[in-house]
Amino acid sequence: MNEGWLFCRCTSVLVVGFLCSGLLWGCSQRTATQQPRSLPKRSLASEPEIKVRLFDLAQFSCDLGAPSTITRFGGKPYAGALTISCAPTKGGTSWVLQRGTKVLAKQRSTVLNLTSSEPMTINKEVFPTRTLSMKIEGDRLEVVGTFALETYLPGVLQRELFAKWDLDTYKAQAVAARSFSLVKMQDRRGKFWHVRASPSDQAFVGGELRPIALEAVKATKGQVLTWGDQILCTYYSSCCGGRPARASDTFAADSNAIAPLSGQGRPCPCQKSGRYRWTAEVSGKSLGDRVGLQTIRSIKAIQSNPWGRATKMQLRDVKGSVVELSPGRLRAHLTALGSRVFSGWILKSQYRKGVLTLEGAGFGHGVGLCQYGAEARARDGVAWREILALSYPGAKIATHWGP
Ligand SMILES: [Zn+2]
Strand pairing of 195-196 and 223-227? Predict the structure, then answer.
């Protein structure tokens, strides 16, 4: 969560207007679906629209915005600096439209759909969409924007990659993000949204976009990665720690056990990431409590994939009892204990006075495109198509809608 975001539990306020501001994040990693899927076929002739969950309650701001025009609220058009608040009531949700403190209209429904004559500004951030849907889900308010896919992608690149990175890195990321989006649209067809605007799917930002992000999306318009007659689920992460992971070791779905998601033997040149190697600490007793053992004295890899990345970790307690965990599960335990780890791939551990000091590798799941590795290769003169070939061995590039 960023400074400036405000958490509101009972009543949330949305401001729609024209102001423009961008919030920059660094690179990110994402989780993946755990369900088998039927992948989208290679037959998309026209550019689809993607539904992006822009905000939920925990990320919601009450900042004021500048004038805008909403053309649907109870069927009427409204203009100006508008505030929309909502509160769950016995009969459903009541939505309130205000200008300043003056209530313009109220409406009761579960989902509120708004269209605008201009790109929507939400909490001072302009998004290239004219259609918003809002819904109370449990104790959260979800705000979803609908985007033409090619309009959405530059905002992904803007937040996933650093400003000074190479154009070829941007182009490789554009194709990976486009393919990943299409698979998520298939996985979540019929749902309220397809992707979250966060690292748990793909990071995304509105506001002013860097020319390189726009250029990379334009230059690769409609291009996706395919395997057989299907679009590839192009997992990607920040830094693989030098050794790629296999999707079949990392995610459960049967559809992940294919060559393009299995990495390849040559080491990945992602040493420039600050997370290539890292250290963290955790209480041996707390970790033991979580995994049903006594105080943990050591953690080590006991199984690796053919490229040398750990696929199974062993934890040993002071009595010599052991438990085996996947790196992902171990990472979840360590994160829950407040340990600052970036993957579950622990290279070494040292136990002293109740504290385990860990040396780990990489940031994220390590499957598919490694963003720092892609950047190092691009700086070394490797073109984006070759970067994708190294990241997803055997996958082909196909063009759907395009120039
Ligand atoms: Zn890497």
Answer: unpaired
- Which alpha helices (DSSP H) does 199-311 contain, by range? 211-219, 247-250, 284-291
C-alpha of residue 251 to centroid of ligand 1, in Å: 18
- Other residues' Cβ atoms within 10 Å of the Cβ of residue 193: 22
Nearest alpha-carbon partner for 165 in 20, 381, 306, 372:
372
Residue 183 to residues 51, 187, 252, Cα–Cα distance (Å):
13, 6, 16
Per-residue pLDDT tens for 358-378?
A: 999 999 999 999 999 999 999
Q: Rounded to whole angstroms, how far apart are CA atoms 393 and 318?
A: 43
Compute, in angstroms, the gap from residue 243 CA to the centroid of ligand 1. Answer: 6
Q: What is the pLDDT of residue 342?
A: 96
Separation CA 236–CA 247 (nearest Å): 10
C-alpha of residue 374 to centroid of ligand 1, in Å = 8
CA of 174 to the centre of ligand 1 (A): 18
Distance CA 261, CA 232 (A): 9
Three-state SS for 143? strand
Q: Which helix (H) or strand (E) holds 92?
A: strand 92-99
Cα–Cα distance list, 149 to 145, 173, 181, 275 (Å):
12, 14, 8, 31
**Alpha carbon distances (Å) from 246 to 253, 266, 271:** 12, 14, 20
Expressed in angstroms and rounded, the spacing between residue 85 Cα and the centre of ligand 1 is 44
C-alpha of residue 365 to centroid of ligand 1, in Å:
11
Pairing outcome for strands 369-370 and 236-237: parallel
Q: Kindly give the distance from the C-alpha atom of residue 241 to the centroid of ligand 1, in angstroms, as a whole number.
A: 5
Measured in angstroms, how far is the CA atom of residue 256 from the centroid of ligand 1?
Answer: 19
Distance from residue 308's CA to the centre of ligand 1 (Å): 13
Least confident of 15-19, 170-174, 204-208, 334-338: 15-19
Buried b (16+ CB within 10 A) or exposed e, 169-181: bbbbbbbbbbbbb
Give the C-alpha separation, 176 to 153, whole Å.
Answer: 10
Ligand 1: centre distance to CA 131 (Å)? 38
